[in-house]
Amino acid sequence: MAEGLYRIGECIYMEVFPPPMPYQICKIEELRKNTKGSVEVAAKCFYRRKDLPPSVLSCADRHSIVVEEENELEGVAVSSFSFDKLSEQERHLVRHRELFLSRQIETYKIDMVRGKCSVTLLNELEDIRTYLVSEDTFFYSMVYDPNVKNLLVDKGDIRVGADFQAEVPPYIPPESREEPSHLATKVWEPNKMPDHKVEQFLVVARSIGTFARALLDGAKKPQISLRLGAAAASRDITLFHAMDTLHQNDYDITQATSYLVPRGPVLCADELEAWTQEEAKRFEEGLQEQKDFLYIQKKYLSWKPVKSITAYYYMWKTTDRYQIQKRHRMIEKQNDLKEVIVHLRTPSGAQTGPRDLSGKAASSGVIPALLPPSNDVPRTADGERGCESCLATTAARWYMWGPAHEHCRLCNLCYTYWRKYGGLKLPTRWEASEKKAGVMTATALLQRKLNKDRPSGPPKSSKKAPRHVTARKSGDIIPPVPFFMRPSPHTLFERQGMGGRSLMRVARHPTSTAIVPKSSPKPSLEALQRFIAGRRRAQRRPFTSHSLASTLNRQSVHTSPVKQLIVRPSPTPISPGYKAAKASKTKVVASGTYVPPKTMNRQITDSRAAKTHLASSSGVYVPPSNGVIPPPVSESRKRKLEGPQEPERKVKVARPPSPATLGPGELFFKADKGTRQARDQLGKGSLVKAARSPAKLIKY
Amino acid sequence: MSSGRRTAYFYDPDVGNFHYGQGHPMKPHRLALTHSLVLNYGLYKKMEVYRPYRATSHDMCRFHAEDYIDFLQRVTPQNISGFTNCLSRFNVGDDCPVFPGLYDFCSIYTGASLEGAVKLNSGSCDVAINWAGGLHHAKKFEASGFCYVNDIVIAILELLKYHPRVLYIDIDIHHGDGVQEAFYLTDRVMTVSFHKYGNLFFPGTGDMYEVGTEKGKHYSVNVPLKDGIDDLTYDSLFKPIIQAVVEHYRPTCIVLQCGADSLGCDRLGCFNLSIKGHGECVKFVKRFNIPTLVLGGGGYTVRNVARCWTYETALLLDSDINNELPYTEYFEYFSPDFTLHPDVSVKIDNQNTRQYIDQIRQTVVENLRLLPHSPSVQMQQVPPDMLSMDLSMELSSDTRIPAGEGERDVEHPAEFYSSGTDHDHLSGVET
Question: With b meaning 16 or more CB within 10 Å and e meaning fewer, what string describes A204-241?
Fold first, then answer.
């Protein structure tokens, strides 16, 4: 296949603004030249898994279970793959390959194309791993409707009932059968006559036809040449008539010939021949106006039946006059393209520019040196962080990735992977936090765009795909994503250096003032490292991406939902060393019991479940150096982890709500004995105080 | 004829002169084009040719609801505004427009299929061809996907009078949902459909797990396929599956729907079959020597539809025809190559992986094993006729490899591409 050749119907990667973001995957529906001469692509969009609202996702997962069970019930042989058989790592990667078809059609400029891919409907029989080994392949099994935010199965129904099935007649045994009545007219019987005899007779018939044309009244068909007459006499209608005649005369050539010349030669003329020039002209006029034979008949040729006009049209298409018309039409149609060749300057889709960190500019400088080393990402030889995705420390090229202040990088391979599949190779915490941290994904943008364009309605669906799209009239409001600040060691250190007052000032005028630390502008590196070392000791189980992978066991999420939480006192603003020492001696002050909402499906396999589980299993999960951890899902949870000063804040639900009343992503806090004890100890007054100013330390 | 097989061919000279409307891909004119090729290739004189009778509303109501047929009979483009209720109720509109002569068109193609069934029943022919038929989407109560009256169901209902088990094979790119739905609960008709499935492809049904229910459970076989399937891949599915189906089900009659939209370059399709690859299916089914009703169906690149069906007519007649097209009055339609087998392949990837195909085949064959061997009708035994006895002997061996004469043909890969060598014995008769 030619490189860079794109055809209608192919799936492509599309760049979306602002780059770099994971590509938008879509299918080319139309290619056309616009008035300025540049080519535009109208493409049907696919949604990535992480672009779907969690409620919709859980619906998708539930569906797949139902289907599986149905098939088992039906007793159909299911040889098949199941998601369960995959390892965690594979599951993680497979999720990057799952897409959701939509009917949403967007128009892009052709130079936004970044390569081809393939998206196919997943068959239950397929081993899903085949998608992992081949590049640029995706699968989908459901159709997402962004207007009403629901999923449909790409599958029709066979209906059962008296209104649908035929009534099967009983079998009639041979002895009671009646003589069948044949109603068709036989017009030809084979093997009655040798082939060459038939051919001879056809020549005779044609000669008679030519002679008949020569005898024609000159006024009716002026200037008909002998040659044209012969051609006209050779058309199918003469041949069919000859064969009919032969059959009617029981394959007797003599009798049939005399039948062809009853009192003179018989002339068989089809529509093309029978029409006068005037009629032909009127037909062409009508056709130019509208290709509707009923209309042409009414307006131009009222004496001809529509059938004749249709027949004439198809014969007329073989004439030169049609060829001329066709050429005109071709010129008009030129703007509708069938394929287009795009030369990609950077085939990998890599964008050069400010985000490209290769070169000196990035490797030198003060800021990277100040970066706190995180727990899991190995460092490169020159002291920089390795790849966030594959943990490699060497790469041909590095790319900035994630929120700017995080200074995370991806190697060139993982960068391409992320752009194509919208995730990282290893399930890291970044993946979880990424979309909430403000990195808006391509399809989220799409959704927004859709909301904006709402009045124009959903794309018109063809009848050939009989599923309904219902448009909602009011625009959807995207709820603001709640987030809170989780201080990283670095931030904590900075805060200490700044002092309370200047911190307050910054908080009040976040944009106006430059932060001038009270202490020396360059805090001593040694102090920082000591500070961090202290904090690290405080964390009992340093988080690594490897251990995450092993904890990503969804079974345990559901079978043992009750987890003890370890609640530590919040760091006190004393000296770092002291704080760290204190933290390491922390005892369990109070314990809360976490009951995850009973999700109806057992196959919560999305990253959300992974996150929830992670939070519930390791009380000391502290995302290193990440200032902003905004997941709405685990917000309350994180706060609980922070310290005992505010567990009550979230205690609003006395009884666990039924799964139905709970939103799919919501958590609630169930107080147990320990919490109640702690509450009692605190007393009402300090509880209220704590609730009002959750950031302050509770004094006993 | 030396083969002893009698072929009946149905054609009404009017059938090509209908027009669905501007921009509509379904063009009845393809039938006129096919017929012209059949005549000028000299195939016409080798078979019994019939001008079919036109089906009455009574015939149509054997399957369809009376008010639906009544509506079809009365509605015209002129009085359409008086039927607004019915239009949506019977799904008549965009895909299935009301065009001049709509009822006549239905009546012609349905009459031909029905007549074909009658001829097969009476034993006056062994193969009946009606390229105008095969409109497999039409439902009992509604039109669907360019189909108004389901001539296939009506023909099968006629066949069921004399045949205990009828096998329906559908190689249209679209799922044969209308026929499957009509016989979803019965074991007297087995429907097998090979079709594109997914990406909201019409009609959306045809998943592998649609196997039928109640008495009809496991009597609906669906082979869902992905884009770009080529000859070899299709062949590697079609032959073993049909072989297994025939072996397990022992049909006494076959209805073959030859929708030509599974060819490469089709206006609506996305498969990559060549005309020879498509014809190979017809050839394979013919070899079972079971009475067969051969019908048309979809097919929206008109010139290739005409080529395909002409080639298949020749195959059914065991007659070799030249790759160079004879001169016909529609000769210009076949430019620029003017051949019977132009390259219709499209340069798209075959998305059906080896593994996918293997798994589909395995599952379908496994499901067939769940069938009780050749289910009996409530009546007595199957009428002892020579054909079915031959068949049982022929098919006693392994599933994949057909025995006897068939074996040579199937196993020899070169045969697939050259003109058949086992047909010569025919040519001596006439000349």
Answer: bbbebbbbbbeeeeeeebeeeeeeebbebbbbbbbbbb
Length of chain A: 700
Q: What 8-state DSSP symbol labels residue A546? A: H
Q: Closest chain A residue to B138 measured between Cα atoms? A: A164
The total of structural domains in chain B comes to 1
Query: Is residue B1 one of the residues assigned to a domain?
Result: no
pLDDT higher than threshold 60 for residue B14: yes
Domains of chain A: 5-153 (2.30.30.490), 195-273 (4.10.1240.50), 276-337 (1.10.10.60), 360-456 (no CATH), 543-692 (no CATH)
Residue B177 lies in a domain: yes
∠ CA A445-A451-A452, rounded to 5°:
90
What are the DSSP calls for A449-466, one per residue? HHHHTGGG-SPPPPTTS-
- State whether residue B348 sits within 8 Å of chain A by CB: yes
| Reported ipTM | 0.83
CA distance A397 to chain B (A): 32
A161 touches chain B (CB under 8 A): no
Domain that holds residue B418: 7-426
Residue A492: phi, psi to the nearest 5?
A: -60, -45
Spatial CB neighbours of A504, under 8 Å, sequence gap ≥ 6:
none
CB B176 within 8 A of CB B194: no
Which of A68-72, A526-530, A591-595 has the largest mean confidence?
A526-530
Minimal Cα distance from A72: which residue of B?
Answer: B209
Task: Label residue A621 by pLDDT band (50, 70, 90).
Answer: very low
- Check B137, B175, B195, B248 and give the catalytic one: B137
Reported as a pLDDT band with limits 50, 70 and 90, residue B233 is: very high
Pairing state between β A339-341 and A5-7: antiparallel
Residues of A with Cβ-Cβ distance to B145 under 8 angstroms: 464
Q: Which residues of chain B make contact with A124, given a CB cutoff of 8 A?
A: 208-209
Nearest residue to A663 via CA among A53, A150, A147: A53
For residue B54, the cross-strand partners are none
Check the annotation: does B261 bind a ligand. Answer: yes
Residues 6+ apart with CB under 8 A from B362: A79
Of the candidates B59, B64, B203, the residue with the CA atom closest to the CA atom of residue B139: B64
Greater confidence, A665 or B340? Answer: B340
Taken in order A283, A289, A292, A294, the sign of the CA dihedral is: negative
- The minimal CB distance from A236 to the residues B36, B197, B332 is found for B36
Contact, B344 vs B264, CB < 8 A? Answer: yes
pLDDT tens digit string along B150-205?
A: 999 999 999 999 999 999 999 999 999 999 999 999 999 999 999 999 888 889 89
The HSE-up count of residue B361 (CA atoms within 13 Å, CB side) is 21
Residue B323 sits in a domain whose CATH number is 3.40.800.20
Residues A25, A11: contact at Cβ < 8 Å? yes
Quick check: A326 contacting B, CB < 8 Å? no
| DSSP alpha helix (H) spans, A552-620 | 554-559, 576-584, 607-617
B373 a catalytic residue: no
Q: How far apart are CA A100 and CA A102, in angstroms?
A: 6
> d(Cα A678, Cα A681) in Å, to the nearest integer?
5
